[in-house]
Amino acid sequence: MNISIILAHPNPESYTHALAHAAREAIQAQGHIPWLHDLYAENFDPVTPLAELARDPGPLPPLVQQHIEEITRADGIIIVHPNWWSDPPAILAGWRDRCLRAGLAYRFEPDGKGGGRSVGMLAARFALILNTQNTPLHIEEEILRNPMRWHWQQVVFGLCGVKDCTQQLIGPVITSTPEQRAQWLAQSAEWITQKLKSLSEEPQP
Fold this sequence. Notes:
- This protein has helices at residues 15-29, 62-73, 90-99, 137-143, 147-160, 178-201, and strands at residues 2-7, 33-38, 76-82, 106-110, 116-120, 126-132, 165-170.
- With 205 residues, the chain is of the alpha/beta class.
- Strand 4 (106-110) and strand 5 form a beta hairpin.
């Protein structure tokens, strides 16, 4: 299987990067292919040009086209990013806007009742969101209501047809010990390993 990993953090020494690389190693260990994209290292431009809003925008920039081709073909998707003000980093929001395109990641069609409905088009069989943060987890869940989970599960992958979408909140990173960070890495890698094993065992249509 081809698993797309989208990483958004400007510091290559960050714990967010460590999580993404642990995910890549877990995928490789199962004999699958990770497509790891570090958006900051690639200097991905998050700004959507007016021309790309057209239904048929013509040739797209090569990096954007590569991302679109991979994300629409991926068997699984892993998004790794910090929680900044209850939002993904701007570079990742721009990737979402430019690469999850109507007509490729989702489409709208008449519902037969005078309205419309959305139809997801991504091929991915699962999505995993790894969110690093410094907010205590009980505040994120109980007070802030975890807006990142809603965003990815319902708004993004719900629209794009990826029904199996899991989020892992990881933190607070800033006050964590080396032992805690090692445990989080192992837990994320184990989740990926078990998910890939279960998908490999499922009968294919």
